[in-house]
Write a structure and sequence with these properties.
Helix content is 28%, strand content 23%. The protein has 727 residues and is an alpha+beta fold. The strands form 8 sheets. Strands 12-13-10-20-17-18-19 form a 7-stranded mixed beta sheet. It has a 5-stranded mixed beta sheet with strand order 15-23-22-21-16, sandwiched between helices. A hairpin with a 4-residue loop joins strand 8 and strand 9. The longest helix is centred in the first third of the chain and has 29 residues. The protein is globular.
């Protein structure tokens, strides 16, 4: 697409762009470079002369199927013919900010009169533009942009087309109906394609509050519509940024200072500059780069390069020293409460004394299958980037800042990603900065590709964390107090993930601040991956101390949480909770609410000596509503595998200020032969739509560890499991 996607035809670019709207007093917009016959009804929806509908999706595809799910929601409301949809990712432009993501996180679903809605939309649109928010993450696409944007934009476009038809035929709009990209007036035997009505429809202002379809009237949503990219994925046809080639392009390999915060002290390019294919040896902040005519030659030259790095003062930092710092902070650090209920300090303790436990999780890398990469080219006073990123507009701003250029002179061409899980955002944009710094030093387009070793050793990591729990049980084994004190080195937000759904009268939940010179990033399910493990493991321990069945114990404490109870019961039923199992086998379960959805998982394992095998995982999910069951199931299964990999193997350990792990040999992944049988069941409770991409990960680790305890009596409180068992 052209960098300038639209030429705005007068008026103010106003709120509701996440709704796909321009609030302009006259004709909306024409897309730059499009034919005069192409008509744009909103900034997301264009109608072409052949009656196809072009939909620009403001979110990025990274395997989650969002380029199918979001257009389904728009097409449903627009009564569009799905076979005529032309679906594309929106460009990195301010008009495509994902302000519904910001609005959803801040306010949730908000119903209000149209004038206030317009003001609210405009405010969030402008605020999102100021921070260049065009983010795909946090399981927000369907529940915020889809529900609050795509549905409304589709319904508004349909109303504009109905009005245009009614005006043409001189009939009441209520007498017209839309179906499969046509408008009909049944009484008069009249019909028209959307393409025939588009120009007239574009003269009308989109409605702020169009009428949305009732769920029972859906013809598309709720069905397992095949992904639009399925055939291409199967045949290997899609082009990722790492596949990109252009004339005179060179490929760059990079080596960073191994210690976090380190810099290049000296580099001798003479040893490699004369090697075949090598073009340049460059020094950029914190790293050295070799460019060549292909990646292998660049990588080989880099491995032989004589370079000395400094340690930035972090050469003494290690995982062991960090653990000591964590313990000291938990023993005497300043406590900041996330949530307090009642006077826990004044609680009367029973004769049995409190139940205490401590849990630990390590740093984790994202380890997406496509290593981070970016093509960059500075020419004619402009900087262009080609990359798969989760926030193209934020990436554009980051590139402009790095190059000290005006954003108007920076172009980002977004590509789909071969996985990301939070890695490829501007919050973790060191690979973008590296590509820009490299491009500023050479006259040719350059594709910077990180090796797997660089990707694992210089990621932005899921924080390591320790949590200490204490609870007092009454005579019936019910907890009357709950205390959770955990370490915080960053990215804990407001502590929402540490809150519990269980009915416990006295609670104290909060954190102590700690420091670590380790770059941190958002990892799939963020803090829920830590707190889910902590909370649901400790809840199992309380059930053990109370000599109660873990399922019944939870259900009793969730009496006021029927959605939690429903998913727990369903997962337990489908796995056969309570049935007789072979010797050295066990079942465990956990329930975690995150990103607006509630997920219970039940895990069955077997042990042969100390060798663990995960036999089966059953997930019961209440996301409120399911748009595409097949895609939703894929996402939950993906979350299970991702969580299982982390639980079994995930560990970024640091020694001498540098990461010990290097590749999939020592940062292992779950392979196909070790993947468990998986079953996913959905409960559509009618609640506000929740997320799907992240929610399958948090319950896995606690359910798995609880199953290990059921099979062996061994309670595992520190991940990964490879430190305790043969996995």
């Amino acid at each position: 697409m052209k960098r300038r996607a639209f030429l705005v035809a007068g008026g103010i670019v106003g709120g509701g762009l996440a709704l796909g709207y321009f609030f302009t007093p006259n004709r909306l917009a024409l897309r730059a470079g499009s034919s005069p016959e192409q008509v744009w009804l909103t900034s997301w929806v264009g109608i072409n002369p052949d009656n196809t509908i072009t939909v620009l999706v403001p979110h990025a595809e990274m395997g989650q199927g969002i380029l199918t799910s979001l257009p389904m929601m728009l097409a449903e409301e627009m009564e569009a013919d799905w076979s005529l949809m032309d679906i594309r990712q929106a460009p990195a432009e301010e008009m495509y900010v994902t302000d519904k993501v910001a609005q959803g996180f801040k306010l949730g679903r908000t119903d209000m009169p149209a004038p206030l809605r317009k003001l609210l939309d405009f405010s969030f649109y402008k605020a999102s533009g100021m921070v260049n928010l065009q983010l795909t993450g946090g399981s927000t696409s369907v529940r915020f942009t889809g529900q609050g944007g795509m549905r409304v934009a589709g319904a508004a476009a349909k109303e504009m087309l109905l009005r245009a038809a009614a005006d043409r035929w001189k009939v009441a709009q209520s007498e017209c109906r839309a179906e499969l990209s046509h408008v009909y007036h049944d009484a008069g035997g009249l019909s028209a394609r959307y393409a025939d009505l588009a120009a007239a429809a574009a003269q009308f202002k989109p409605s702020l509050n169009p009428r949305l379809k009732a769920k029972q009237d859906y013809v598309l949503c709720g069905k397992s519509v095949p992904r639009i990219d399925l055939d291409e994925k199967v045949t290997g046809a899609p082009i990722y940024a790492i596949d990109l080639s252009m004339d005179n392009m060179k490929v760059a390999a990079i080596r960073h200072a191994p210690v976090f915060g380190g810099e290049v002290v000296s580099v001798d390019p003479g040893s490699v500059k004369a090697l075949p294919g090598v073009e340049d040896v460059l020094q950029i902040p914190g790293a050295v780069v070799v460019t060549a005519d292909n990646y292998w030659r660049a990588h080989k030259a880099l491995s032989g390069l004589a370079v000395e790095f400094g340690d930035g003062g972090n050469g003494e930092f290690s995982s062991e020293s960090m653990c000591r710092d964590f313990d000291a902070a938990l023993d005497g650090g300043d406590f900041v409460a996330d949530h307090e209920l009642g006077d826990i300090a004044g609680a009367v303790t029973g004769s049995a004394g409190p139940v205490r436990a401590e849990y630990r999780v390590p740093f984790l890398s994202h380890a997406a299958m496509e290593p981070v990469n970016c093509v960059a080219w500075r020419r004619d006073g402009r900087l262009e980037l080609w990359a798969g990123v989760q926030d193209p507009l934020g990436t554009r701003a980051l590139a402009a800042e790095t190059a000290d250029m005006d954003m108007e002179n920076v172009v980002v061409h977004p590509y789909q990603m071969g996985g990301s899980f939070g890695r490829k955002t501007s919050f973790g944009g060191n690979f973008i900065r590296d590509a820009v710094h490299t491009a500023l030093r050479v006259p040719y387009p350059v594709k910077l590709v990180w090796s797997r070793e660089e990707d694992i050793r210089h990621d932005y990591y899921r924080p390591s964390e320790v949590s200490r729990f204490e609870a007092q049980l009454d005579a019936d084994g019910k907890p009357v107090t709950w205390s959770n004190r955990y370490t915080d080195i960053g990215l804990n937000g407001d502590g929402e993930a540490a809150l519990i759904p269980y009915a416990i009268g006295l609670q104290q939940i909060g954190r102590v601040a700690c420091g670590a010179p380790v770059p941190l990033g958002y990892w799939r399910s963020v803090q829920h991956s830590c707190q889910g493990f902590f909370i649901e493991s400790f809840m199992d321990e309380l059930a053990q101390h109370a000599a109660r069945d873990p399922l019944e114990y939870r259900l009793a404490l969730l009496e006021k949480q029927p959605r939690h109870q429903a998913v727990l019961r369903l997962a337990a039923e489908k796995i056969g909770w309570g049935k007789s199992l072979p010797q050295n086998s066990g079942m465990g379960l956990a329930v975690v609410a995150s990103f607006g959805s509630i997920v219970a998982q039940a895990v069955q394992i077997s042990l042969a000596g100390d060798r663990l095998r995960v036999e089966k995982v059953v997930a019961a999910v209440d996301p409120g509503e399911v748009i595409n069951p097949a895609i939703a199931r894929d996402q939950v299964e993906s979350g299970i595998i991702y969580g299982l990999t982390a639980a079994l193997f995930g560990d970024i350990a640091i020694d001498g200020g540098r990461v010990r792990q290097s590749n999939f040999t020592d940062y292992r992944m779950v392979r196909m032969d070790r993947a468990p049988s998986m079953e996913v069941y959905f409960i559509e409770s009618g609640a506000a739509p929740g997320g799907m991409g992240e929610v399958g990960t948090p319950p896995l680790a606690p359910a798995l560890c609880n199953a290990i305890f059921a099979a062996s009596g061994q309670r595992i409180r520190r991940l990964p499991l490879q430190d305790h068992l043969s996995v």
